[in-house]
Amino acid sequence: MSLSKVNKQVALKTLLATVLLVALAGVAGAQLAPEVPLQWVLIYSALGAAALLLVLAIATVVTLTVMQFILRKGGTDTQWLWFSAEPRGLVHLRAQASEAQTKAGKCPKEHA
Predict the structure, then answer these.
(1) pTM of this structure
(2) Do residues 111 and 94 make contact, with C-beta atoms less than 8 angstroms apart?
(3) Would you tell me which of 25, 38, 74, 77 could form a disulfide with 112, CB atoms 3.0–4.6 Å apart?
(4) Running DSSP on this structure, what letter comes out for residue 79?
């Protein structure tokens, strides 16, 4: 099987599972609010799932954009943003690399 066919199958299965879970949540919601017609509960469930998907997509794009910005501006690793300093030994390794480049006659790249 080709990779694109597998990806399409996974996407289709994920979409089907999401639709079925939203329908299940809608039916459960109809039991909680019996005065609301089932079709309205299902519509509200679908809108809630779409809103959740939209929020997750926006959060993913924002997070990845920030991570790319960190890497472009000389960050070592985007996860180190959460810590107060560079990993142990990294400053020493950078100094060794800079020294080696200087000995080789190359201009060392400055790190921010």
Answers:
(1) 0.57
(2) yes
(3) 74
(4) G
